[in-house]
């Protein structure tokens, strides 16, 4: 299915969209990647939704992409005798390991590993920052804090601890169980929440063992500090602005967003901008002007994809939210005066290998010779990912004999990922297969010129070292 845009849309599936009919409507409205949020919903529900998503492949002859988002180590306080308490600025409030119900003076905070790492002056943010506490005395089983603002604290509210690398595993027991189920379900991407450092991704990659690509969610100041190291080891990055906006000053989030997108472009890794993009559409049929501008600015910055969370998961208008985001992206990409994503100086890599040379050449030829598409013939998808980094002025058709690869590549900017059960044994077969698939899917038409890149020997994942220019002809004997 050809989209009239190059940036991609992720949509979260939840109670509002957990039927095969709504999932199909979301797909037709513009969803490129479906997100299964393992923080909510049962495994049975996720499996049912996955089956509905995969069912679209045969009907539309289009590889579907599914991202499983792990919950991660979310910190929470315990429960109160009266469900909630009103805290006053300046009062003392204790977090401890006592399992009794809390009151206006104390609450259970069942995370013993953290107590020794929270020194006086450490800040704790509760309920998305609505309550701010500062540690004034630390014990092995108790944190005595001062309340920094008036506010209400209630049962099981989340706790954020900025500016501290926490000594906790990025994978909880729940995450490990969910991960195993997600891999059994054959998802294409795994998103890891609350990443702090590159080692978190490396550890997850060893467990996943190539069965899915790994996306690092950037939602902690420590992750921002270690961003280059994280980008290098991750397969993709998600800028999760919800928790990031709690743990960092709000005014810094747009700057961080722009910088991370730029860094991902430099490393050639896909990047997703997420959280509250069209938040008002949870209950309204149209977004605010500010939300439309937020989506547009992410596209102008060059993000690979933008994501819907509650809008498509629990909102009143899941299909309309996807359609609205689709229209915003289409209109931004039509703005030829301002929408220009040429790599410019970022092309100046220290080391240029065969793949870099071929993709650079394909970009130049497409830009100067009027080619209608660049077809990357790739088993592993690495060449397609490298080509997407170039932000070519024409569509990129990622062609792979590996269905898993075809599914994963749907996330990439500008890539129409196609699966071909045929693999090429020689250059002639490569050209014929590439042109046939592109023509049969109505991605090109007769007399169009296309550029085809591949690696020799055929059928092996490796360096791209071959480039061909072909012309689409009207009959079936394509050359």
Task: Give the terminus-to-terminus CA distance.
Answer: 24 Å
The H-level CATH homologous superfamily of the largest domain, spelled out, is Phosphoenolpyruvate-binding domains
Number of helices: 15
Whole-number mean pLDDT: 91
- Alpha-beta classification: alpha/beta
Which sheet architecture does the biggest sheet show? 8 strands, parallel, barrel
Reading off the top of the CATH hierarchy, the class of the largest domain is best stated as: Alpha Beta
Write down the CATH topology of the largest domain: TIM Barrel
What can you see in these coordinates?
- By secondary structure, this protein is α/β, with parallel strands linked by helices.
- The chain has helices at residues 20-29, 43-60, 173-184, 198-208, 221-225, 227-233, 241-247, 253-267, 289-301, 310-313, 318-333, 354-369, 382-389, 403-408, 427-440; strands at residues 8-13, 33-37, 65-69, 75-76, 84-87, 92-96, 106-108, 123-126, 131-139, 142-147, 151-154, 158-160, 189-192, 213-218, 236-240, 271-274, 305-308, 373-377, 395-400, 415-419, 449-454, 466-471.
- The chain folds into 3 domains: 8-73 and 170-333, Alpha-Beta Barrel (TIM Barrel), CATH 3.20.20; 75-160, PK beta-barrel domain-like (M1 Pyruvate Kinase, Domain 3); 344-471, 3-Layer(aba) Sandwich (Pyruvate Kinase, Chain: A, domain 1).
- Strand 9 and strand 10 (142-147) form a beta hairpin.
- The longest helix has 18 residues, at 43-60.
- The chain is elongated, with a radius of gyration of 24 Å.
- The model is unreliable at 345-349 (pLDDT under 50).
